[in-house]
Amino acid sequence: xxxxSFPCKGRGxxxxxxxxxxxxxxxxHGRLPFGRPVVVxxxxxxxxxxxxxxxxxxxxxxxxxxRRCCEKPGFRLVHFAVLGNHVHLIAEADDLExxxxxxxxxxxxxxxxxxxxxxxxxxxxxxxxxxRYLPTPTEVRNAVTYVLRxxxxxxRREGLPPPADPQAFTSLGPHPPGRxxxxxxxxxxxxxxxxxx
Length: 197
Description:
The chain has 197 residues and is an alpha+beta fold. The protein has a single domain, classed as Alpha-Beta Plaits (2-Layer Sandwich). It has five helices and five strands. It has a five-stranded antiparallel β-sheet, sandwiched between helices. The mean pLDDT is 83.
C-alpha cells in the first residue's frame, strides 16, 4: 500500500482539447427570462446529412408538425418560413418555460417526422434553436418582413433570379384546408404592427 498525494491525479480537471468546442454554436448559458408575453424570432438549423426541408414529402410533414404544435399553453406560432436547411419562426410566448416547452414539442414532432420520411435515425437539428426577443413594434415588423421574404433575400445575395413563388414555403403560402398552421397573434406588439409584405 502506498499513500497517494492529494488531490489525486487522473479523471477530472483541466485537459487539453476538453470541453465544448468553440464556434458559432448557440450558448448553453440559459436564455434571459421575461415576465410578460413577448414576440421571438427563432431559427433552427438542420444537420448536414438531413435532406432539403423543401422536398415535397418532407415539407408536408413539417407542415403537419406546425399544424399540431402551433398553439400550446402560453406558446403561439404566428409566422414561419421553411428553407432548405433551416426554419425561421415568429412566435409569441407568455414566459420562458412556455417558450421552451412549445419549441421542445415542435422540435420533437419535426424530428420524428423528418426521420421517418427520410428513413434515417439520430439527431435532426444541428444545435439548440437560436431565439431573439423583439421588444418593439419596429423590430417585430422588420423581423416578420425578413422571415416572409427570406427566400428573396437569399436569391438576391447569391445573384440568382427571384423565386417564382417566394411565399410558397411560408405561412402566407397556399396550404390545404383544415386546422390552421399558425394562430393569430395576441400580444400588443403584433396587433399594432402594419406589415408591408
